[in-house]
Amino acid sequence: MNIRVFDNEAQAGQAAALVIAAQIVKKPDSVIGLATGGTPVLTYQDLARLTKSGILDWDRVTTFNLDEYLGLAGDHEQSFRAFMVKNLFSKVNIKPDAIHIPDGLAKDPEAESLAYERSINTRGGIDLQLLGLGRTGHIGFNEPDSLFSTRTHVVDLTADTISANARFFANPSDVPRQAMTMGIGTIMQAREILMLVTGAEKARAVRGMVCNPVDPQCPGSVLQLHANVTVFLDRPAATAMYHCQ
Ligand code: F6R
């Protein structure tokens, strides 16, 4: 694990944008895995800016998002698809059919999950996967105690994740209770992983991820077993990591 601590959230977010931009410049037909949530917003702003200034071309890029809430249509304001359109896809020249996000309204979520996995494989797998880290240590929506071998599947969200994500909804009871997520096995198959974590409320999860042995209780710790992982932190997220003993 290559860990880098930045002075603040803006620097960490900008550094993540530069890694993604470099990947696209190096390989214009890259397959990029993307995350939603509060953490990558600044990164997406920077990617939009680099695209507007003519440095980045998304014409041949393919994307796969980590997850989507079950029960929300893609045009629902709080769906992850709507988040991605608002924060990135409406600002870059990606082709609509190159965007992949699980369908939260799929009639058969199991079949949708299998099709999602097939789609990733058909496109040659993910070159670079962007991840955030949940307060529970989750990656994607793979909550504590998830099997490390899982592929895209339906999950029940934990109470902690529901309460963390309630900030995006008018009413906490509106937060969906289930989601479809890439599995840990899917994530670990990406050729390169870039994790971005900011804010003091993530310090405990960061500690569990980097200080402790690999443990399903902290799904992020599985990244210790991946050969090509970079973690960008801001100072508040890094605070508990300095006392690993
Ligand atoms: C998002 C995702 C989640 C988030 C994590 C952190 O697609 O899969 O794992 O990355 O919950 O969320 P924020 O950034 O809102 O703290």
Structure explained in plain terms:
There is one protein chain. With 245 residues, the chain is α/β, with parallel strands linked by helices. The protein has one domain (7-31, 44-193, 206-219): Rossmann fold (3-Layer(aba) Sandwich). The chain is built from eight helices and ten strands. The protein has helices spanning 9-26, 41-52, 80-87, 109-122, 159-165, 184-188, 203-210, 235-238, and strands spanning 2-6, 31-34, 62-65, 67-69, 99-100, 128-131, 153-156, 178-181, 192-197, 229-234. The longest helix has 18 residues, at 9-26. The radius of gyration is 17 Å and the shape is globular. The two termini are 18 Å apart. The structure holds fructose -6-phosphate. Fructose -6-phosphate binds at residues 35-39, 66-67, 132-134, 138-141.
**Distance between termini?**
18 Å
- SS field, number of helical segments: 8
Shape: globular
Total beta strands: 10
CATH architecture: 3-Layer(aba) Sandwich
CATH class: Alpha Beta
Q: Structural class from helices and strands?
A: alpha/beta
Strand order of the largest sheet: 1-10-9-6-2-3-5
H/E topology pattern? EHEHEEHEHEEHEHEHEH
Uncertain parts? none
Strand content: 15-25%
**What is the CATH topology?**
Rossmann fold
What helical percentage do the residues reach? 25-40%
